[in-house]
Structure formats: C-alpha cells, structure tokens
Amino acid sequence: MNFFIKNCKLDKEKTDCIVVPVFDLCELSHSACYLDKCSNGYITSLIKLGDIQGKIGDTLILYKVPKIFSKRILLVGCGKKDEINKVRFKKIFKNTINILKKLSIKNIIYSFSELNINNIYWMTRVAVLSIKEFLYKVMKINNTNVDNINIDYIILDISKKHDLFIAKIALKHALAIDYAITSAKNLSNLPPNICNPLYLSSKAKELAEKYKNNIVVEVIDIKKMKELGMNAYVAVGDGAKNKPFMSVIKYSGNNIINNKTIAFVGKGLTFDSGGISIKPSFNMHEMKYDMCGAAAVYGILIMAAELNLPLKIIGILSGCENMPGGYAFRPGDVLTTMSGKTVEILNTDAEGRLVLCDSLTYLERFSPNVVIDIATLTGACVTALGESVSGLFSNNQELANQLLHASEETDDKIWSLPLFEEYQKKIISNIADFSNVGQGQAGAITAACFLSKFTEKYNWAHLDIAGTAWKSGKNGGSTGRPVELLCQFLLNQSNYIYS
C-alpha cells in the first residue's frame, strides 16, 4: 500500500472512495461543501434525512453522487470542530478503516487537511500512522493468514498548495516511523523458541547489511562477556540453554550536527521464567514480551537509518533468557558487576536490572552524552501507572523535559517518578553494595534507583514500559511503544522543522 500527497480537484478524481469530514450538527467541512456544491446539493439533501449527525463514530456511504467521478463518498462524523485533538483524530480514522476494509476498495482519497490538530505536518503524520496502525496484523508463524486488505494506494488531499512541501516531509517521517514501529512489533510478537538471544543478534546484523553506509554491528557473546567482567549479565543467562548475546549497533549519519553521542539500551529478555524465583504459570507465556525494550531500540535504529538522521547513535540489544537450571543463579548469591560494584540477589525474577547494569557500564567506553534505557522492568510500574502510561526516571531534568515534550507531541504518555534518597536506602545490602530488590514498596522506583548506581557518568533516563509494551488476550500483542516517542526525541535532536 502506497501513500501520496496531492492537491486534488475532488469532483474530477477517478477513485474508489473520497473520505470527507462532517462535524457535529451536520456542519459540512470545506471538502464536503465543495462536493455538495458540485453535486447540486445532493449531499445536503441526504444529510437532511437524518442518517448522520456528525458525531464521532457516525459514517455514511454515498454511491453514484451526481457530477462526481469517484465511485463513493464516505462521510465521517468528527464531532465538534474545535474539540478535535490527536486522540479523537485517531478514533475518526479507526472508524473509516473499519468501514473501508470491508469494501472492495483499492484506492482512497482522504480530504482532512482542514482538521485542526496543530498544523499540516501533524495532521499528515497522525493520519498515516493511524491508518497503518489500524491495518496492522500479527503475522502467523505458518504464513497462512489471509490479508483481506486490498488497498493499493491512499492519497492525502492537501487543500492549500503551499502546505504540500511540509506534508511530504510529514509523510516521509511517518513512513519511517511506521517501519520502525512495525519492525519492533513483528520482532516482539515472535514466539521465544524463534526469537532467542542469538536471533536478536542476527536481526542486528541484518541492519548492518541493509544500512552498510550508516550502521556497524558488534555482537558480544558469553565468552567475551566473561572477559569483560559482565558477571551480572552472565549470571542471568547461565541457567538457559540459549546463551546471552549483546548486540552493539553503531549508527552514524551524514553531516552530523554536533559531537553528541546518544545511546539506547533495550532489555532483551527473550523469555523470563523468573529463574529460581519462578513466576506463576498464569500468563507466563506473555514473558516472551520481556524483550520489547530491545525491539524498541531495534526499531529506533531503523528509523534513524531510513531518514539518515545527522546524529551519532549507539543502540544495545541486551539479549538474554532467564531460566531455572543447574547453572542458574540463586537468591542469596552475591555478584560482582562489570563496574566492580557488588549486588546481593534477593530475587532472581529481578533480572532485567542485572542485565541492564552491565550494559550501562559497557556503554561508558563510548563516552555518551545521553543514555536512555527501555525496559519491561517492573510489575510495580503497572500497578502505579496502569497500561496507558510508561514510567520515566532520570538523573537529568533537561533530558527528562525533552522526553516529556516528545511524549506530549506523540501522545505516547509517560510520567516522571522520583529517585529520592529515601528510596535509594531501600536497596542497601549488609553484605554487598546493593540488593537487587527493595523492601516491597515502590518497586518501580527502587528498580530505577538500582540502575541509577550505574549511570553516574552520563545523563541518563529510564523508561519502564512493563504496562505499555503489549496488550493481553487473543487479539493482543506488542503495541510498539515507546518507539514513536523516541523517534520524535531523535527528530527533535536533529532540529527538524515541522511548520
């Protein structure tokens, strides 16, 4: 399916369907008014019958409209004109997709450029990403799923010619971000017998092949980890048949705008049984999603390479499995991390922070200016913030503000939580520098406090996506979050102008 930006003469376009907005109380949009005028009031005459009120969720298909070349016109209710925001805009597009995918339609024109969601850049980008999101399907492993979406292309009608340039930039960004989100989703949705740490490393190597002018990849195996002193990372993977692999993806764009190095670390537990502190069996199959942080980093690097962002980026996929076994680490063990700091293990199901702490120390060799780790880290974050909001922790307020700004721009919600000294005391151990869990309260915060002990040499932020990375149930799967948020963060670092 292809997307195009065009300034259309709507009555003359030979297409399967033109989609136009209708506002509350049957107020016609500019595009609907134009088509109504061209058809000598035909649309108004049908609206007077009361089949559509203009509320969000309303739709009405018109066939063979007089003097209009398009086979159909789809009127879509958009609610009150001055209350449209990105959330409602996405809902409007979801309604259109639910209608259109049931029809034999190969090409569509959306004439929505007058809808007020900031500017034409965001209107275009949100439209494309919404359509892509609602058409996404989880791939079946046996490749027998039938795709009943027959759409060949979608045209976004831009009513003002001077907006075409910005709209085309928005389309380019949207397609790259969608590629990143879809790639992250597809990777996360794979079963753990396919997507293991070695598989993760192979996907990283594929990036180096595809983007050979921008990306170099180094894979650190368990032997090298031991040589580096990454004992915490190694301990987590020791009980598993599938041994750990850490993929280091080095991206460098053209015409780099500054000497800053931005690093992302993704927790890549391709399966987490909890180890000796084994998890309950209920929904344990969903622990294949414990690598959504690594999948997010994978997607972010794809977007950077697709747009050739003028940045230096390091991406680490911290691939590992946490399994019980004769070589598994135990509650009561004391591990010496790569940093030299010691950790008392109180719970082997608090393993992600052990993998991440050595990955964060490894990053010091690149002298990064900014480090962001992304992890499905704690059930406590789900308890605190639910399934709509990711947790944000940072040792640098400017970095936190930049992430919060990107969150507001993309509507990928995050909420800042504290790292107060009172919480830091909860992980003090009497036989090691720290314990790997706190004392039963504020679990998301004490986990972030633990990570903060290994990030003192750079500006750091931690995103706990345990509640937002996937949805449960038969029709669930990876959400692809927080890929768009972090892509937007990188676009902002690249000084892109959207209007």
Automatic annotation (TrEMBL):
Mn(2+) 1 binds at residues 272, 349, 351. The keyword Transport does not apply. Belongs to the peptidase M17 family. Presumably involved in the processing and regular turnover of intracellular proteins. Catalyzes the removal of unsubstituted N-terminal amino acids from various peptides. Residues 347-354 form the Cytosol aminopeptidase domain. One of its GO terms (molecular function) is manganese ion binding. Its cofactor is Mn(2+). CDD domains: Peptidase_M17. Keywords: Aminopeptidase, Cytoplasm, Hydrolase, Manganese, Metal-binding, Protease. Mn(2+) 2 binds at residues 267, 272, 290, 351. One of its GO terms (biological process) is proteolysis. Its EC number is 3.4.11.1, 3.4.11.10. It catalyses: Release of an N-terminal amino acid, preferentially leucine, but not glutamic or aspartic acids; Release of an N-terminal amino acid, Xaa-|-Yaa-, in which Xaa is preferably Leu, but may be other amino acids including Pro although not Arg or Lys, and Yaa may be Pro. Amino acid amides and methyl esters are also readily hydrolyzed, but rates on arylamides are exceedingly low. GO terms for cellular component: cytoplasm. The active site is at residues 279, 353. It is found in: Cytoplasm. The keyword Hydrolase applies. It comes from the Bacteria. Its main location: cytoplasm. Binds 2 manganese ions per subunit. This is Probable cytosol aminopeptidase.
